[in-house]
Amino acid sequence: MAIVDLANAQLQQAGAGAAAATMREDDDGHDHEQESSYDYGACLMKGVRHLSDSGITRLPDRYVLPASDRPGAATVLISPSSTIPAAAGVAVGRVKLPVVDLAGLRDPSHRSAVLATLDAACRDYGFFQVVNHGFGSEVSGGMLDVARRFFELPLPERARHMSADVRAPVRYGTSFNQAKDAVLCWRDFLKLVCQPLREVVPRWPQQPPDLRDVATRYATASHALFMEVMAAALEALGIPAGGGVLGELAAASSHMMTVNCYPACPQPDLTLGMPPHSDYGLFTFVLQDHVEGLQVMHDGRWLTVDPVPGSFVVNVGDHLEIYSNGRYKSVLHRVRVNSTRPRISVASFHSLPAERVIGPAPELVDEQAGNPRRYMDTDFATFLAYLASADGKNKTFLQSRKLPVPAAAACV
């Protein structure tokens, strides 16, 4: 979703200037958003942390979803397979994602078994959890701690980093797509571009004082973890060592971190922290605190992820579904909020450089074997053009890149 958010920033430029924040002061000097057409601008400028801290007890209308889109609404069936009962061991409404143990991946005697787990997870769920990744608590715990302290800064300090510049290496904002959302999301975020690291870090926030050092260590470790998991995924796909995109990624890649804050919400059943979406990239790695909220679409149902303490939640992005020629699945996911506890997460988005055209790996296309090319090539410019012409819901961009598949091949 990193590139999605960059694109949203570009689309935002036309709309952000049109809304203005209009405030009034009551007799005791407290600010209140006016119930007028300018309320949208006020929400954009101050975000949900401000609303939550103000002690509101009723969700502002701009955050109330239509009844059919609310998190408690019945799920709309999205495919014939959605009527199939959940796999064994999956409780209704919750899911324990497959676990990929990197200690086993690094052990030659266990590597093949771990690769099989990784392959099945990417095929069946599009999500898995990584354990024994080697991150010390000072790296992962430190990142969550500094993220929490950033969102506790006074609003003027956070607001210094607001930007509609699509190329800005740091950007603070709220919702999902601030210019086009009919309903705003219950989320504030800090986005940090991480490539090239030495060039962008001096432009990251200076407060809290240790943010740059902590986030640099975390970004470096996250990229190394991505490269290890990506190498394993290529091996699981049957792409020979030294082949595929690994060499390209070692030379140049895109990497962005999104630090998310989902404050306590007065009416959580009426809104979402993030709407249903898929990620435009290869892999996304999510570090989260102990507060649950991430939900994935599986067999036509929304399932809340039971996090494994100390793990990373990893999901397949659109790029990897295209590159794997449909073998691995980029699936819809969303974030729920709650009325009592704030939630902090850090999402690291990894892919090829934005200008790189990506299509199915040649090794995974074989017309004679009944495995034809299933996706058109794509690039960032194509994605931007699509966003400008559609609402982006229900991962329709990925659907737009699919090629017609002969009936015989579709059954393979």
UniProtKB/TrEMBL annotation:
Places the protein is found: Cytoplasm; Nucleus
A GO CC term attached to the entry: nucleus
Keyword Metal-binding: yes
Main location: cytoplasm
Pfam families associated with the record: 2OG-FeII_Oxy (PF03171), DIOX_N (PF14226)
Coiled coil (residue ranges): none
Record flagged with keyword Oxidoreductase: yes
Entry keyword set: Cytoplasm, Dioxygenase, Iron, Metal-binding, Nucleus, Oxidoreductase
Stored InterPro entries: DIOX_N, IPNS-like_FE2OG_OXY, IPNS-like_sf, Oxoglu/Fe-dep_dioxygenase_dom, Plant_2OG-oxidoreductases
CC cofactor: L-ascorbate
Domain Fe2OG dioxygenase: 253-352
GO molecular function, one term: metal ion binding
Family: Belongs to the iron/ascorbate-dependent oxidoreductase family.
Task performed by this protein: Involved in the regulation of shoot development and salicylic acid (SA) homeostasis.
PANTHER family (alphabetical): OXOGLUTARATE/IRON-DEPENDENT DIOXYGENASE
Protein name: Fe2OG dioxygenase domain-containing protein
